[in-house]
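[job 4471] stage=fold_predict status=RUNNING
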Amino acid sequence: MLKNDLRINSSLAELISSIKNSEIYRNYEEVSREVGEVPGLQERIDEYRRNNFLIQQNHEGEELLQKLEEFELETAAFRSEPLVDKYLCAERDFVKLKQDIDNRMLSELEFSIPAGF
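[job 4471] inference complete, writing structure tokens
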């Protein structure tokens, strides 16, 4: 569909360029390169992220809070590694930027999402 609408395609390319030139994205890219230079670190970070995701997807309410607290205690040493913390913070900032863009588009376009989604 995008191929058929040159104006939207052009605007999207401009948005992507703006994101790539943002401080948030440049920082994320820089830290990602640093992580890639340390053998095995990206895999350890990915495992941390996967486990965090699974906890959040498989638990609710008080159990979720308890599991997250346990996870934080178990992974505190890993999270305290400066490059790991730097990467996870840069990733969080980039994801937040993307969410803000998505949310702005949805609100401006009056696109309704049913409750519960």
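[job 4471] summary: DSSP finds six helices and no strands in the chain.
[job 4471] exit 0
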